[in-house]
Amino acid sequence: MTTQSQMLKGILEGCILALMEHREVYGYELGALLEDSGLTFVSEGSIYPLLLRMQREELIEGTLRSEPGAGGPPRKYYRLTAKGRDILQQFKEHWGTLKESVDHILAQGGPST
Amino acid sequence: MNIKQMIEENNKLQDAMSPENLSYYQDMIVYIRSSRMQEAKSEELLLEIAQHLLEAQDKGRTARDVFGSDPEAYCKELVEQLPKMNVLGALQFHLMVPWIVLTWFFFVQAAAGFITMWVGGPIERMTQVRVSSLLFIAGGSYIRSICCFYG
User: Fold this and answer.
1) Domain coordinates of chain A in residue numbers?
2) What are the distances in angstroms from CA B64 to CA A30, A45, B21, B54?
3) Least CA distance to A27: which residue of chain B?
4) Domain A3-108 has what CATH class?
5) Do B60 and B106 share a domain, yes or no?
6) CA of B53 to nearest chain A CA: how many angstroms apart?
7) Are B44 and A45 a contacting pair at CB < 8 A?
8) Does the pLDDT at position A67 exceed 90?
9) Which of A15, A46, B121, B125 reaches 20 to 30 Å from B28, CA-CA?
10) B74 and B93 part of one domain
11) What pLDDT does B67 receive?
């Protein structure tokens, strides 16, 4: 795996945690939310292996249930665990520092001779 | 929701799939159900995938668009992330067949001895069994069961 895709994976994981911070989200919805945010490098199907890994690592947990009122077949809704919240907090801090540093370098441009 | 209910829901969802999507989805079912992962987890995942597939289908996208052109490769990616059978479950799985076979062997041995005694025959031969015979029976039945399972 390339460094770039590793990095994107970490960012994607952070974004998924952030999207679940305030409410429960189901798989299809999550894919649509990511796409709407412009994260087009994420293929729709690739979120499921990621969701499974995040469940195994106990960052998120899912429950299968029917939407009240709507009837219909049950969906799996995901929410953050306490550990997931910690990791999201860490991600926000890391991202803040990284963004600041990169912005700083880009604004300055290369060293002038 | 128990496993049976999940499978029923799953069957209902399949009725709504287009022939092309259904065929793709059934490949996924075969791959995931035969993966020896915890059954409840597998069924939950299959149900989730079926839901996603139908929502995509409503928007005019196919299973191929969503999960890629190779269902087996995609399922492999999924299965790698699923919790495997726990250690105790795996141990029971491996010991069950030799255990049952040996139980039957002793039962038959005892019954034969009892009948011999009843008809007044010599029972010395019935009271002994070689350890190597037991090992052979246990080992043979184990290999046979593994062949059946993976064959």
Assistant:
1) 3-108
2) 19, 10, 8, 13
3) B52
4) mainly alpha
5) no
6) 9
7) no
8) no
9) A15
10) no
11) 94
Per-residue pLDDT, averaged over B52-61, amounts to 94
Are B73 and B91 in a shared domain?
A: no
ipTM above 0.85, yes or no: no
- Which candidate in B11, B32, B43, B52 is best for mutational testing of the A interface (most A CBs within 10 A)? B52
Residue where the block lists tokens 């550990």: A83
Nearest CA in chain A to B10: A73
Confidence band for B117, pLDDT divided at 50, 70 and 90: confident
Q: How large is the average pLDDT for residues A90-98?
A: 95
> Which whole number is the average pLDDT over A52-77?
86
CA-CA distance, B44 to B39, in Å (whole number)?
9
Long-range CB pairs of A83-90 (<8 Å, 24+ gap) are A83/A57, A83/A58, A83/A59, A84/A17, A84/A20, A84/A54, A84/A58, A84/A59, A84/A60, A85/A21, A87/A17, A87/A59, A88/A14, A88/A17, A88/A18, A88/A21
Which ranges in chain A belong to alpha helices (H)?
Answer: 3-19, 27-36, 47-56, 82-108
Q: Among B1, B12, B41, B48, which would you mutate to test the A interface (most chain A Cβ atoms within 10 Å of its Cβ)?
A: B48
CB contact under 8 A, A64 and B6: yes
pLDDT at A44: 87
The token pair that represents A30 in the structure block:
């999550």
